[in-house]
Amino acid sequence: MVAQGIPEETGYILFLFAATILLVVVVRIVISPRDPRPTPEKRAPFESGQISAGPGRTRFIIQYYPYILMFVVYDVIAMFLFAWALNLRALGSTGTIPVLIFMVVALPPLAYALHLANQRENW
Amino acid sequence: MGNPIIDLLTSTYFLEIAVFPGLLSIAILGALLGWMERKLTARVQLRVGPLYASPAGGILQMFADIIKLLFKELTIPDGADRFFFIMSPVTALIIGAALLGLIPFAPGIQIANIEVGLPVFLAIVTLSPTIVLLAGWSANSKFPFIGGLRALFQQTAYEIPLWLSTLGVVIVTGTLSLTGIIEYQQNSGWLIVPQLLGAFLFLVTSTAEMERLPFDLPEAESEIMMGWQAEYPGPLFMLAQGPAFVKLYAFSALFTTIYLGGYLGPAPIPPIVWFFLKTILIITLIMLFRSTFPRVRLDQLLRQGWTTLLTLSIANIIIAYFLVVGIPAI
Known about the structure:
The structure holds two protein chains of two kinds. Chain A has five helices and no strands. Chain A is mostly helical. Chain A has one domain (2-122): NADH:ubiquinone/plastoquinone oxidoreductase, chain 3 (Methane Monooxygenase Hydroxylase, Chain G, domain 1, Up-down Bundle), CATH 1.20.58.1610. Chain A is flat. Chain A starts with 7 loop residues before the first helix and ends in a 6-residue tail after the last helix. Chain B has one domain (78-325). Chain B has 13 helices and no strands. The N and C termini of chain B lie far apart (70 Å). Chains A and B meet through helix 1, helix 2, helix 3 and helix 5 of A and helix 2, helix 5, helix 8, helix 11 and helix 13 of B.
């Protein structure tokens, strides 16, 4: 792409723009008006042949909540490791000690959280 | 130079975006992968599969299906949020195309060779469960809603092992650029040898990310009737099916790039052919998972993702670390 005088990032944005335009055109064709004959039965939500009852967006008990909490915390922690991994050759083992301390701080709470999250009473 | 429009249409740049690594090839390959999956699953189950749509073993079956689905009636369920209902599959398709824009198919054939290709790929992938949840919520129906929430829970199980399995590659190669990773493999051999555990973890977690069996909980057709896709009428169902195949193509291409040397291979065969040979091998492997393994339960997936997969990916990082720094003499 650089050979054609366009920076890579601009090229990528142009590509996404082209994809969006194309798909919007496709969607215009796909949802174009066509002899609709809706009946209340056709437009009812699908419930495996049962007559549908109640609203679709019901209140939902969030299960597995401890896992979601752990995800919010440890997903970010995992990102920090990328900065360390990228510079590992330059830093050598001196860069490892802070990361090691970081992991020692981060992993025991993870183990305890897992211990709690794996108990069925806490789902 | 003559007509500027003809110049634009024949420029390498336009052709790259519109034809080969770009949009047209993604659409055609997506449809062909649909055929391949049906044929392969049929062969595993001692059936024939698509047969009549062309002389060559029904290879045009998916195109016939697309035409059929386009002419179906468009019924949108009562109370659905029309904008999100229609735009969710489209956004998912754009996400799939955005992934393929980062892959180097051959030297010079790549839409965007950006410095941080690997994290950008994984970051874009992170968006797709949200799109699934949005699609499931907007349909105002129970099965799609359950499917969307399952996609969200499933993401918490595989996301961190997916990132950490590629962290091994970053440690060994010292670069985040996909072309840089291939250049490293040109000098030091394929990364699947030192990173075998990482490759295995990446394969498992990317199967979970693609929502394919054994991890196809958001669209489990025998439990919640295609989950988030249940309410889509024919034409939109066609669009909703697309992202699965585009993501299968993109993830197999990424696996080829970071573990199997990408387009590298002995000289007489051109690099692009090597790339597709390896990619199709991985695609076949992932399709065989579908006919081999039973579906896991959501709580099993969460527990294994947070215990087994996470422990193994940390072990993989330690292996990669000692590969780079060397084992200290005690």
